[in-house]
From TrEMBL:
Transmembrane annotation, as ranges: none
Domain HMA span(s) in chain numbering: 1-67
Protein name (Swiss-Prot/TrEMBL): HMA domain-containing protein
Organism field: Clostridium sartagoforme AAU1
One Pfam family matching this protein: HMA
GO terms assigned for molecular function: metal ion binding
Length: 67
């Protein structure tokens, strides 16, 4: 499954690193691509292992706002 998440406060390369780290701790995430200009995260995941809302929660727990 593939989803796109908009992140309100994604502004710097440090934010990209923090979000990538938060996402990578989830079992079932296959890949993620973070676009700083568009403030978007494209994530590919196994929907039998994890739901997109669980990925969004992990991003929010890292201090970011998922729109």
């Amino acid at each position: 499954m593939k989803s796109v998440l908009k992140i309100a406060n994604l502004n710097t390369n440090k934010d990209v690193i923090n979000i990538r780290e938060a996402i990578s701790h989830n079992e079932g995430v296959v890949a993620c691509e973070i676009n700083l200009d568009k403030q978007e995260v494209n994530v590919v995941y196994d929907d039998k292992s994890i739901r997109v809302d669980e990925i969004a929660i992990s991003i929010e727990e890292a201090g970011y706002s998922v729109i």
